[in-house]
Amino acid sequence: MADFVLETRNLTKSFGGFKAVSDVSLQVKRGNIHALIGPNGAGKTTCFNLITNFLTPTSGQILLDGRNVTGIGASQIARMGMVRSFQISATFGSMTVLENVRIALQRREVNTFNFWSSERGLDRLNGRAMELLDWVGLADLAQRSASELSYGRRRALEIAATLAQEPSVLLLDEPMAGMGREDIRTIADLIRRISASRTILMVEHNLSVVADLSDRITVLARGQVLAEGVYAEVSKNPDVIDAYMGGQHA
Ligand SMILES: Nc1ncnc2c1ncn2[C@@H]1O[C@H](COP(=O)(O)OP(=O)(O)OP(=O)(O)O)[C@@H](O)[C@H]1O
Questions:
Q1: Does ligand 1 come within 6 angstroms of the Cβ of 39?
Q2: What region holds the ABC transporter domain (predicted)?
C-alpha cells in the first residue's frame, strides 16, 4: 500500500500563457486531514479541478494509491474512491432530504437497474440513506424539503450525499464558506468523524478551522507551493506570513 494515498507530481496548468498551477507536488498521507490554503487566486480551485480530473493538466501527474490516474476522467476517479463534495443543486432543493441521499446512493448503482422507472428500486435504498442521515444528524428531517434546511444542515446533507458514494478520499471545497459559528462547530465535528476512516483534502479559508482540523497544510501562492507542514510550523514561516497570513491577520 502506498504511503501517500494521493500525490501530485509537478502538476501544472496553463491558461493561455498564464500558469494557474505551476509544478505543484502534493503528498497526502492516508487518514490525514490535509488542508490546501493560500490567498485568492493562488490556484487552489484549479488544483482541485485537476486532481478530480475536471480539468486536464498541461503537464505533471496525479497518483491515487500509487497508481497514475492522470486524465482517466472524473467519473472513473470517483469510482476509484476519490470524490469531491457533492453540491446540492437547485433541482435537488425541491426534493426531500431523504430523496437527495437516495439519488446519491443510486449514482453508485446506475448500471444495475433503471432507477427512474423503479420507485421500488429507490425504496430499497431507503435503509442505507436513513443510516447516512442519522450519521450526519439529519434523520429527523428526512421528509423535509432540502430547500427548507438551514445553511449548515444543507452542508451536512451535501456531506451525507457525498458519503453515499463511499469515498476513501474526500475532497472538500471550502466546507465552512458562508457559515456562522454554530454551524462551523457542527461541520468541523462532522469532518473530524468522517476522517476517522477516510482521507480528506480540503480547501478552506477559515484559518482557525484549518488550525483545528488539519494534520498537514500546503500553502499555495501564485500557483506554486510556498510551504508544507503542520500548522504550527507553517504559520511561523515568514514567506507564508508575507503572502497570506499577514494579510489575514492584519
Ligand atoms: N479557466 C480559466 N481561464 C483562465 N484563467 C483561469 C481559469 N481558471 C482560473 N484561472 C486563473 O487562475 C488563477 C488561480 O485561480 P483559482 O480559482 O484556482 O484560485 P484559488 O486559489 O482557488 O482562488 P480563490 O481563493 O479566490 O477561490 C487565477 O488568477 C484565475 O484567474
A1: no
A2: 6-247
Q: List domains and CATH numbers for the chain.
A: 1-85+168-250 (3.40.50.300), 87-164 (no CATH)
21 in ligand 1 pocket by Cβ < 6 Å? Answer: no
* Ligand 1 centroid from CA 133, angstroms: 34
Provide the grid cell at 201: 483534502
Direct distance between the N- and C-terminal alpha carbons of the chain, in angstroms, rounded to an integer = 44
Q: Look up residue 218 and give its amino acid.
A: T
Tens digits of pLDDT across the chain (250 residues)? 778 999 999 999 999 999 999 999 999 999 999 999 999 899 999 999 999 988 999 999 999 999 999 999 888 888 899 999 866 665 677 899 999 998 888 877 664 455 554 566 666 788 999 999 999 999 999 999 999 998 899 999 999 999 998 899 999 999 999 899 999 999 999 999 999 999 999 999 999 999 999 999 999 999 999 999 999 999 999 999 888 755 554 3
Q: Locate 89 and state its grid cell.
A: 443543486
* Helix (H), strand (E), coil (C) string for 130-176: HHHHHHCCCHHHCCCEHHHCCHHHHHHHHHHHHHCCCCCEEEEECCC
CB 63 within 8 A of CB 5: no
Q: Which three cell numbers, joined as nine digits, stand for 81?
A: 474512491
Structure pTM? 0.90
ipTM comes to 0.95
3-state SS track over 171-204? EEECCCCCCCHHHHHHHHHHHHHHHCCCEEEEEC
Task: Give the DSSP H/E element, type plus range, for residue 68.
Answer: strand 67-68
